[in-house]
Write a structure and sequence with these properties.
Layout: H1 8-13, E1 24-31, E2 38-39, E3 47-49, H2 53-63, E4 68-74, H3 91-103, E5 108-113, E6 127-128, E7 131-132, H4 134-151, E8 155-158, H5 165-175, E9 184-189, H6 196-202, H7 222-233, E10 238-242, H8 248-257, E11 262-266, H9 268-279, H10 285-298, E12 303-306, H11 309-317
Parallel strand pairs: 1-3, 1-4, 1-12, 4-5, 5-8, 9-10, 10-11, 11-12
Antiparallel strand pairs: 2-3, 6-7
The structure holds ligand PBG.
């Protein structure tokens, strides 16, 4: 087989997996407590954007050819019920309206539908005596998704891992006149160590306990397939596997078994590991990122949600 790798042109001819800018989604943080964009401490080159600086950021994203962003909101007010998550003038609702009016259809806007950024306790659902109440949380998630749809979002992405969230959100969207709004569900979101820089960025670390009762056990494969089956039966349009790099086998199994688009979320910890290692000369950033993202695609991901998106788009546009 060495004959087939001998020179660049032959290698290029036989390349089986290619990354494309058109499959990338860039996560963006919008913070209503700030006036200027602010560097996120443990995520080099990533920012919390003010409701103003977000427009310039999206200009960049679009000029690089990146088709989609996923928005995470950081609200002024957090309370036990997370009520600012579905406020008409909530941080995400306002950002969606602004982006929709500035960029019309040249941008796919995806929103995170969850409570952890909005609750004072930092959990992804409503609590009673320290326990997350799955079914009570569903109606709140439905309200959040509907309020995003009313603001003009293209795709809602529930990430709270409540059982039945797809069914309830689908039902609410349909009743609200948004039957054309797709749901990208985090069917398989593992209770992972790789979320820490994100939790610092949005200040959503649980005040007590952890998320193990609702996020998945990383030791389980059959359970992940069952979660996807359930989400499909509830009407999901696309599924997310999260994190990505330590779950390539999960991505592969889902994409082999189900004919549904699979998105992989290359999360904050995966991003920062490469950033810090390459800053310190341990890794070559570009080579490493391209290898990692190509592996995620090779495993079967149709879409990659990644903080590297702008860098990768730049490299791919240069003809890497
Ligand atoms: C929860 C949510 C999390 C991430 C995205 N949505 C974190 C969590 O479960 O604590 C993490 C993403 C990342 O690490 O990049 N709404």
């Amino acid at each position: 087989m060495r004959r087939l790798r001998k020179n660049f042109t032959v290698r290029r001819l036989l390349k089986e997996t290619s990354l494309a800018v058109s499959n990338l989604v860039y996560p963006i943080f919008v913070d209503e407590c700030i006036d200027n964009k602010t560097q996120i401490e443990h995520m080099p080159s990533q920012y919390r954007h003010s409701p103003k600086s977000i427009v310039n950021e999206i200009d960049d994203v679009i000029s690089l050819g990146i088709p989609a962003v996923v928005l995470f909101g950081i609200p002024k007010i957090k309370n036990d019920a997370g009520s600012s998550a579905y406020a008409k003038n909530g941080v995400v609702q306002k950002a969606v309206r602004l982006l929709r009016s500035n960029f019309n259809d040249s941008l796919v806007i995806i929103t995170d539908v969850c409570l952890c950024e909005y609750t004072s306790h930092g959990h992804c659902g409503l609590l009673r005596e320290g326990m997350v109440m799955n079914d009570k949380t569903l109606s709140v998630l439905a309200k959040i998704a509907t309020s995003h749809a009313e603001s003009g979002v293209d795709i809602v992405a529930p990430s709270s891992m409540m059982d039945g969230q797809v069914l309830r959100i689908r039902d609410a969207l349909d009743k609200g006149g948004f039957s054309n709004t797709p749901i990208l569900s985090y069917s398989t979101k593992f209770a992972s160590s790789f979320y820490r820089p994100f939790r610092e960025a949005v200040n959503s670390k649980p005040a007590f306990g952890d998320r193990k009762s609702y996020q998945m056990n990383y030791a389980n494969m059959k359970e992940t397939l069952r979660e996807v089956e359930l989400d499909i039966s509830e009407g999901v349009d696309m599924v997310v596997v999260k994190p990505a790099l330590t779950y390539l086998d999960v991505i592969r199994s889902i994409s082999d078994r189900f004919s549904i688009p699979v998105a992989a979320y290359n999360v904050s910890g995966e991003y920062s590991m490469i950033k810090y290692a390459s800053k310190n000369g341990l890794l070559d950033e570009k080579e490493t990122v391209l290898e990692v993202l190509t592996a995620i695609k090779r495993a079967g991901a149709d879409i990659i949600i990644t903080y590297h998106a702008k860098d990768v788009a730049g490299w791919l546009n240069e003809g890497t």
